[in-house]
């Protein structure tokens, strides 16, 4: 009986659900407003949108992003200019002006904080999360993570992982990058999260086009319908909600062990 009780508690550790599914969308694309937000809203699901403040799809559609925040979705920080480390293999798309390898920690920190200010003007919030552009966390050989740690609740990377509660560094939470998967393949990942009592974070760029990393509208919507159909077992928080839950869980566990 004791064993069964323990399993029951473990199986409901994500806000009293079996697993958590966080839907994140990077780069402030038009398709996020045109395709994703209507799809989420139709099923009353939540998304976290990591916005690059210089993106035309952001600057030209500010009022729409304001409505996104009012609709219980999250506006996350994805920097001002999306700098990536151009010295790494496969980074020919990085321009010299926004090559993170030639930045200073002060420059990237200043640009990130300016983006926070812009986002606060839209949603009025001071509590926010961050997504590392290209998953890069260093300026040259120096990490900039500690320089921005006080500005955010948590940060999302691009390494694939099934996230475990209480045992994850909140500033290095992994995600599954979506690029061309079918609906069945995306749903299989959610089922894996359910089997392992984990949180899964999806990282979308294009949804029905507009980005080299893309997923079809059909596959995306199949995933959303699965999440909705299993809402008794799945928790669908924003990234900041999930991070705050994990932070509170870790604090509770630390207090209990004292």
Keywords for this structure?
six-stranded parallel beta sheet, globular, 12 strands, 258 residues
Task: Please provide a brief summary of the model.
It is built from nine helices and twelve strands. The protein is of the alpha/beta class.
What does the model show?
This protein is an alpha/beta fold and 258 residues long. The protein has a single domain (16-257), classed as TIM Barrel (Alpha-Beta Barrel). It is built from 9 helices and 12 strands. Strands 1, 2, 3, 8, 9 and 12 form a 6-stranded parallel beta sheet that branches. β5 (138-139) and β6 (142-143) form a beta hairpin.
Low-confidence stretches: 1-10
**Portion of residues in helices?**
40-55%
Choose one word for the global shape: globular
SSE succession: HEHEHHEHEEEHEEHEEEHEH
Class by SSE composition:
alpha/beta
For the biggest sheet, the summary is: 6 strands, parallel
- Architecture in CATH? Alpha-Beta Barrel
Measured by DSSP, the beta-strand proportion falls in 15-25%
What's the domain count?
Answer: 1
Tally of DSSP β-strands: 12
Query: What is the CATH class designation?
Result: Alpha Beta
Q: Give the integer mean of the pLDDT values.
A: 93
The number of helices is 9
Q: Please identify which CATH superfamily we are dealing with.
A: Glycoside hydrolase/deacetylase
Distance between the termini: 27 Å
The CATH topology turns out to be: TIM Barrel
Rg from alpha-carbon coordinates:
18 Å
